[in-house]
Amino acid sequence: MKLKVSSDLVDYQEALSFMEEQVAGIFEGNKEECVWLLEHAPLYTAGTSAKAEDLLNAQFPVYDTGRGGEYTYHGPGQRVAYIMLNLKKRYQAPDIKHFIWSLEEWIILTLKEFGIIGERREGRVGIWVVNEDKSEDKIAAIGIRIRRWVSFHGISINLNPDLSHFNGIVPCGIRGHGVTSFEKLGVKASLQDLDKALQKTWPKVFG
Predict the structure, then answer these.
(1) What does each C-alpha distance from 120 to 34, 101, 115, 130 come to in angstroms?
(2) Which pLDDT band holds residue 91 (cuts at 50, 70, 90)?
(3) What mean pLDDT, rounded, does the chain reach?
(4) What average pLDDT does the segment 100-124 reach?
(5) How far apart are alpha carbons 69 and 71 in whole angstroms?
(6) Hey, what domains does the chain have and what are their CATH numbers?
(7) Mind listing the pLDDT tens digit for each residue in 21-48?
(8) CA–CA separation, 172 vs 89, rounded Å?
(9) DSSP per residue, 88-152
(10) Is the model's pLDDT at 66 over the cut of 90?
(11) Half-sphere exposure of 72 (CA within 13 A, CB side)
(12) Contact (Cβ atoms closer than 8 angstroms) between residue 59 and residue 134
């Protein structure tokens, strides 16, 4: 499997083009599986379930995308991981729910490396953190697409993005909860630290 890490901000359309080409190549057997760690300039993406009323203030470019889910934000200080895997080869019986569970587990184990307890919530996509006042904020989002049993799009983890940028949308269509980050939780870490943790925990989930 190929690991691609970009230190500069990556144009969203460039990322989409790369994923399209990679996914086609993986299906055809002439490209290897790939995980791409990157950051984008501030933008919003709309998944296949996005509702117009959840776009509150389009202060940044908005991209329609074929991934599952609703509106999400990407920007500097947030590590995005695009995951292009051949699920048919990896699993005897490809199971999208199990794949999403695996992505959640990867995030949870990675957060644990920094002493952050990330949790799943039934009916609420992503990974959540419980605050001292018992409120719950999202620290990581998941939005994938499967084509011919090859995955693309992926996950995002909030390291130290400008959290006010999330105010332009209802993140993932979930009202009544906020978003958080390593920085807001008082956890000091760099993108390089996060990347190392993601690489360390990957084999524990995906072999």
Answers:
(1) 26, 9, 16, 11
(2) confident
(3) 96
(4) 97
(5) 7
(6) 2-206 (3.30.930.10)
(7) 999 999 999 999 999 999 999 999 999 9
(8) 30
(9) HHH-SS--HHHHHHHHHHHHHHHHHTTT---EEETTEEEEEEE-TTS-EEEEEEEEEEEETTEEE
(10) no
(11) 30
(12) no
In angstroms, the Cα distances linking 171 to 80, 92, 93, 142, 181 are 16, 34, 32, 11, 14
Residue 92 has pLDDT above 90, yes or no: no
Per-residue pLDDT at 89: 92
Residue type at position 117: I
Q: Is 34 a catalytic residue?
A: no
Q: Which two tokens stand for residue 134?
A: 């018992």
- Per the listing, tokens 């908005």 go with 62
Quick check: helix, strand or coil at residue 16? helix
Cα 32 to the center of its chain, rounded Å: 21
Distance of CA 81 to the CA centre of its chain: 6
Q: Which of 37, 108, 141, 172 is labelled catalytic?
A: 172
Return the biggest CA–CA distance within the chain.
52
Give the C-alpha separation, 113 to 196, whole Å. 10
N-term to C-term CA, the chain: 11
pLDDT exceeds cutoff 90 at 191: yes
pLDDT for the residue 173? 80
CB 118 within 8 A of CB 127: yes
